[in-house]
Amino acid sequence: MRSNLLVGISSAVAAVAVAGSAMAATVHVNALGASTGWYSDDTRTSTGIYLNGTNTSFQPYFQGLLPSSTADDALIAQQLYFTDSGSASGGGSGVMVMDGTSGNSGKTSVRYYGAGAGIGTLNSSFSSTFRWYMDPYSTARTVALNLSVVGSDGKIYSMSWLGNGAQMNAWNTFSVDANTAVVSDNGWRLYGNGAPGSAAGAAKSLNDWLADATYGSILTNSAVLGQGFNIGSYQRNCRVGIDWLESSLINGGDRVEFGVIPAPGAAALIGLAGLVGGRRRKA
Question: What's the chain's average pLDDT?
Fold first, then answer.
C-alpha cells in the first residue's frame, strides 16, 4: 500500500513548483488542514488501516488511491490533536499531541505542506530545532523529524531523523543541521522507491546523504514537499507533545508554535499566573 501511495504522489508532483516562505514572525498552529498548511498523511489505525480524512489529510499523498471521509477525520483527531493542557502538555504548555496506538501497525504522521507546491529545496543549508514532551505513558518513544522530497529521478523519498538523549516526563529540545553526526545509530534514514530504509548502516548525516554515491545526485537540491513529525510503526502505546518548531524551510526560519490559543481573557489570566508562579513557557 505504501509503495502505491508514493507512486501516486510522485505522479502528482512531477512538475512541482518550489515556493519559499517570506514570513518573518511566530505563527500559531491549532488545527490541521488548508487554514494552516499542516496535514496528516501516513497516519494509520492500530490495525494498520490508512486514514484519509476529507479535511485534515494531504490529498496528493493518496492521489485518489484511497477515498477520503469525514469519519477518517474523526479517527485522525483521536491520534493527532491540539491542546493547551493535558497529560502530553508537560504542565499546561500548548502542544500538538501525537498519540501512539494500541497496536504495532499503528502510526501517527503530520507534515507541513503549505499550499502543496513545495516548501523549499534540500541542501546543506538545512537546519531545524524543535521542543517536545515525552509523556509518561505505558511506553516511551522518540518522535522522528521527517522530510518528504522529490528526487531528481521524479520519485518520492521520505527522510526520517531520530535524535538521542530524550527524557521521559520532561521537555526535550532537539536540533539538527546538515552536519549533525550519527550517534548510536540515530541519524537520517532514507525510505521509499528502493531506498535502503532501516538496513544496517543506512543512518547518515544529511551531508553524507547529499554526497552518497547512489543518492547524492538524486537528493541534492531536490524539491522538499513537506516537513513534519511521526511516531512510526511498532511504537505502540506512546504519546508525545510537540511544543514548537523552527526550520529553515518553514516560516522563514521563525518559530511555529503548536496548541490551542486561549481566549483573550484566559490568556491574560495565564500570563498573570506565569508572573506569580514564575512558570517558564519556553526552554
Answer: 83
